[in-house]
Amino acid sequence: MERITDRRQFIKKGLMAAGTVALASSSGVLLAGCSRKKEVKITIADTGLAFESEPLIRPFGFKGGYMKEIWQTASLLRSSSGAHSIGLCTQNVLWSDANVFASNSESAGNALMYSLTDRAMRLVQGQTFTSPVELLDRILPEVYAYGQKITSRTGLRKTFALNALVGADNAAWVLYARENGIRNFDDLIPEAYRPALSHHHKKVAAIPLMAYTIPIDEIKEAVDQGYFFMKIKIGQPGTQEEMLAKDMERLTAIHSAIGAVTTPYTESGKLPYYFDANGRYESRDTLMRLLDHARKIGAFDQIAIIEEPFAEEIEMDVSDIPVRLASDESAHTVDDAVLRIEMGYKAIALKAIAKTLSMTMKIAQAAHERNIPCFCADLTVNPILVDWNKNVAARLSPFPGLGKLGLLESNGHQNYSNWPAMLSYHPRGKASWVQPEGGVYELGREFYKAGGGIFEPSPHYEEMFTGK
After folding, report:
1. pLDDT tens digit string along 218-235?
2. Does domain 42-183 have CATH number 3.30.390.10?
């Protein structure tokens, strides 16, 4: 296989292939070039930051590690006009940089990421911006450099900094909406990124996560409830041989339990499998041995996606691997996403709730211009952030093989001990679109009109700053 020695050759090739931004959506609606009211200049007069830790039902295992709690941070921005907004972030140190997670206690790793958010809030105070994308571009390099310093890691993954910036970025978008009189998500999207986010799906598939420790009976129960697109964690702890043996055994057990189940939502009528290796496979040969096993047990044709099989440092052409490989955490920025596409990755897992909405819009547009399908993956986020992600998933092109459906992973209900209480913090927590029914989120006119409720204040998070 070809090993890439110069990242620039992929990026340059990809940018040349991009062409110009499409002027029309798939429905023929003119998107770019239309007139738009001049954006208001916003000056950030004051900021605030707070967090609370949410315990998990059981240790959450992936990337060879286990999490026991997840910090939820809240970033407050107040403009010189007196308007304010609060943006939420679900921290995930293990996902964003497994080396930081492994070299610190779980609480210390969370504190390091929280320090990056604090740095960002100090940086934006007093700054003026007209676009949240512009604000993120301005502060990301300094926040990332600060992260390298405090973690003592020159090779810190950029997703660590982007994860830390989600709350600040979301707060900037809500403040931008309030200052510009915007009340729905469609009007929030900059014209340059609208071609990639032009759909209004009536249904979005809800993807549950089956981590290492999820019993087979719980997987069967999820299928019985109507879930049909399974995200299955592979790349279990141990040496490469131990990992492969465990993954083969797990795949066999899952396929034996649910492989014969049918669904009306796929063209094949079978349940699609979505494997997430989180970069644990060290060679192409090891992955091919897993695929050979899948063929042997009759599961190969149901593999829809294998996400992030290799560590991002393994820069090789994967275009001849006979399944759709998706890039997730290796697609830190739009340039990184282009690089992965040019390597032969055939899908991008978008994470507006982990890499910021600003960066996600850029990545979605780059993928759209190259005819690469996208879907939205979770970070075990809180219910309000699920709807930030849902706003993106609802507007992406349908995923191949699924008909007119978007894809949205959401596994918080499987993992948080206090999920019902967290739902109560959502300003539209009782709305019909919040909970999936029969394996899908039903999205009607009210969802699109309200933007999933993301523009509305949450009393719970407001009280974190008022002290009530």
Report:
1. 999 999 999 999 899 999
2. yes
